[in-house]
Amino acid sequence: MRLKLTIAYDGRPYHGWQSQPGGNTVQDHLHQALLAIAKQPVPIQGSGRTDTGVHALGQTAHFDAPPALTMNPCNWMPALNTKLPATIRVMRCEEAPPEFHARFSATGKTYHYDICTEPVLPPLRAGLAWHLPQALDPAALTEILARFCGPHDFHAFAAYRGNETPDTSHHRTILRADATALTDGWRLTFSGDGFLYKMVRMLTGAAVKVAQGRAYPDDLAALLDQSPGLPLGKCNHCAPADGLYLQQVHYPANLR
Amino acid sequence: MRLKLTIAYDGRPYHGWQSQPGGNTVQDHLHQALLAIAKQPVPIQGSGRTDTGVHALGQTAHFDAPPALTMNPCNWMPALNTKLPATIRVMRCEEAPPEFHARFSATGKTYHYDICTEPVLPPLRAGLAWHLPQALDPAALTEILARFCGPHDFHAFAAYRGNETPDTSHHRTILRADATALTDGWRLTFSGDGFLYKMVRMLTGAAVKVAQGRAYPDDLAALLDQSPGLPLGKCNHCAPADGLYLQQVHYPANLR
């Protein structure tokens, strides 16, 4: 039986999602919890990586329950949560069709990015928001975010991950990019059919430069859709991991 | 020059407010920060203790700036925050009259206590709320909290601290005790002229028992104002430290 998990985590204590030799990643903790329950290694596939310090409210993953284990799907959630640290929680566990794949079935993702503009970053926001103790211009913020919407080549807003080939597409469609006021600053929300490595943090970094009056919207929007073959202009503003939250992974209705 | 600090902290990493030989208390961190700036020990007096794991949004303290140090009061806040861990922050620093005393000038305190009633405690609420995944009856909650209001002998709702004498008064006046809905549960707010050791946590524990339908309001209200000389009935419900926040310390207008 294939099971779909919806997972939330505080990114501060972990070296990101992806399993690695040093351990202490979210995936490593899930593998350990599954091993403790199933008494055998059970591979778990996430919707994608999150970096060190990035948080998740709705990361998704799937695994196949070992056939010998006749466990009701609704018992997996409490069983896993008992084995996991309190800063990683399975928020939902449901049976999924056998063709469901946490990564390849996903049709899009929503991230948000929190910015605290208070003079002092409150202790309970430490590591959970980017501290920018200066006013951001809401009109400029709205303008530059609107420019990012739509289908674009986002190559300038992607960090190099090492697995690119000349055929790697940097074309993505952003369906929503906007800013809403928080009591202590701003929340930027980005929805799209996919995001390149560090793309949300680079879009946020660029938007902040504009909202601080330190860059022109036109200059940053000009980094979109650059002609192939010419030297690539890159966005060199990358927001820290602290404020980034993977909010939701989207799937087609029949696989939801 | 006497300076008044308003301090916020995440209680999770610290062994409470009060300095102790093992260190790693909030007061110890403030002493270290002051020592680094003043190059001499500067005693700091808080409004009162908070226990291990208890949070503060508006703890207060005072210290006397060494006369040799000609530092503008507005420079103390950034100087201290540079030396403090991110989970302890001086939110305000202001000159106070020489007779101001963080503890003895206080006329009251406000605490709040957060309860999360969701089936799963979200990772970002771990250690910040009491997880009670069952419905609480709002009417019962309101009723029992109202019974706690007013001047009462709260001896039954105090833990023994070891420094009591036969003359120790357990008489306090609660001016506000109510529950407001949060998106994930309830926030109980208590204001009063003072609180005994663990009193807010015992009042919260008692209120929860009633709101769960596991105790009668009359039985718990009967623990208030017990006659001296008779064996003392005690409240044996104490909420964990996780959900407790020292919100504000109150001072007379001329010392504010």
Give a brief rundown of this model.
The structure is a homodimer of 256-residue chains. Chain A is an alpha+beta fold.
Your description of this structure?
The structure is a homodimer of 256-residue chains. With 256 residues, chain A is an alpha+beta fold. Chain A folds into two domains: 103 residues, Pseudouridine synthase I, catalytic domain, N-terminal subdomain (Alpha-Beta Plaits, 2-Layer Sandwich); 141 residues, Pseudouridine synthase I, catalytic domain, C-terminal subdomain (Alpha-Beta Plaits), CATH 3.30.70.660. Helix content of chain A is 21%, strand content 27%. The first copy, chain A, contains five helices and ten strands. In chain A, strands 1, 2, 3, 4, 5, 6, 7, 8, 9 and 10 form a ten-stranded mixed sheet that branches. In chain A, α3 packs antiparallel against α4. The longest helix of chain A has 13 residues. The first copy, chain A, is globular. The model of chain A has no long low-confidence stretch (mean pLDDT 95). Chains A and B meet through β4 of A and β4 of B.
